[in-house]
Amino acid sequence: MQTLPPFDELKAMAENDPDQLEALRLSMSEEIISQASKEMQPRLRAQLSHINHVIGYGKNPNHTNILLMAELQQQLRRLAQALNAPETLSDQTAEIRPFRRPEPDS
Predict the structure, then answer these.
(1) What is the pLDDT of residue 89?
(2) Which of 41, 55, 81, 88 is the most exposed place for a label (fewest CB within 10 A)?
(3) pTM for the structure as a whole
């Protein structure tokens, strides 16, 4: 398993070779996911895809950090809700109505 380089090396990568830092992030993420159970891997890949989308939306590193922090806070709120009031969680929030054909004009 890869080890995270020292902070100074990561800082230098961020300043001088951000593509190398991104490659390291992705390879370490993939390594962690591949070591998870087969049942959890699809959920972890979906979470990584969502994180990548958030990162891609960021306009600069500070904006990206703010977006990621907001995502983390939302996940923590959902975890707290699952622990404290699991009955309030629902997968379906849409109201499903039956389709009715319009009445023919008489």
Answers:
(1) 79
(2) 88
(3) 0.71
